[in-house]
């Protein structure tokens, strides 16, 4: 399906990124910032191809599965990476692996933009001590929530819009023109390697010896059942059953040993 990016589509995606990066909705937008899945879904909805957008975003998600954010700081901004890479992939009919190779450097650049937002927020927070001494609740809300949110929108919307509206079509056209060349092969290879790295990181994060068999069980189930076209709902049911069995048997062993 041929997909074009209009002014309104680029603007809506840019507004979504600003909303996520501003964290104006609290924990909900914080979670969206750490994961590209919701951003990918919104991009697919705006561009009219949710299915392919989610296929691409699922591959990007693999890279960031093991990311942790101590103090809210991330080495990359997955939401920004997805906001740029998914439209480029849809416009240029790229493979998910190729989209990963675009998302990763964009997400790294996005982290510098997010840190610049922190710098700008310091000016908004300057009068906070004064408002606190005065008991000025309105001033505190303005200083802590209002102005930082406005800064986020003023910073992210123009930059993301320019990157999408002017940059995405150029990149996608270039990708289409070299679709079967060495560059795309390299992008696909690098992207596949980054996805494997993401899986390795999540294994390191949750890599307790007693849990690793479940990880490998899930992987080999997906390989063995690939031809059966089992959807994610069935796999989720399998996961719930295994979790219940694990907890039940663990509790039984604990009671037997006590």
Automatic annotation (TrEMBL):
InterPro entries to which the protein is assigned, alphabetical: GatZ_KbaZ_carbometab, PTS_IIC_man
tRNA-binding as UniProt keyword: no
Gene Ontology terms: cellular component: plasma membrane
Residue stretches spanning the membrane: 62-86, 98-120, 140-166, 178-202, 232-249
Membrane topology summary: Multi-pass membrane protein
Subcellular localization, as worded in the UniProt entry: Cell membrane
Domain of life: Bacteria
Gene Ontology annotations of biological process type: phosphoenolpyruvate-dependent sugar phosphotransferase system
Main localization, broad class: membrane
PANTHER family referenced in this protein's UniProt entry, alphabetically: N-ACETYLGALACTOSAMINE PERMEASE II COMPONENT-RELATED (PTHR32502), N-ACETYLGALACTOSAMINE PERMEASE IIC COMPONENT 1 (PTHR32502:SF8)
Protein name: PTS sorbose transporter subunit IIC
């Amino acid at each position: 399906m041929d997909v074009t990016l209009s002014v309104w589509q680029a603007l809506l995606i840019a507004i979504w990124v600003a909303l996520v990066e501003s964290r104006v909705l609290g924990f909900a937008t914080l979670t969206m910032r750490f994961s590209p899945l919701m951003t990918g879904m919104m991009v697919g909805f705006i561009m009219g191809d949710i299915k392919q957008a989610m296929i691409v975003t699922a591959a990007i998600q693999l890279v960031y599965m093991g990311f942790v954010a101590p103090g809210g700081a991330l080495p990359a901004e997955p939401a920004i990476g997805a906001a740029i890479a998914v439209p480029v992939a849809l416009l240029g009919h790229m493979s998910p692996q190729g989209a990963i190779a675009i998302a990763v450097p964009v997400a790294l650049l996005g982290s510098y933009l997010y840190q610049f937002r922190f710098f700008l927020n310091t000016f908004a927070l300057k009068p906070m001590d004064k408002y606190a001494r005065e008991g000025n609740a309105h001033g505190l809300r303005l200083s802590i929530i209002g102005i930082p949110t406005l800064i986020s929108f003023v910073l992210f919307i123009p930059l993301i819009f320019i990157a999408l509206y002017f940059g995405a079509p150029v990149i996608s056209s270039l990708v289409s023109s070299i679709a079967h060349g060495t560059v795309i092969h390299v992008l696909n290879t690098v992207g596949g390697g980054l996805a494997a790295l993401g899986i390795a990181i999540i294994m390191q994060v949750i890599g307790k010896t007693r849990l690793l068999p479940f990880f490998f069980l899930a992987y080999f189930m997906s390989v063995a059942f690939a031809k059966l076209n089992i959807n994610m709902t069935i796999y989720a049911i399998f996961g719930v059953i295994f979790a219940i069995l694990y907890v039940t048997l663990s509790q039984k062993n604990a009671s037997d040993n006590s």
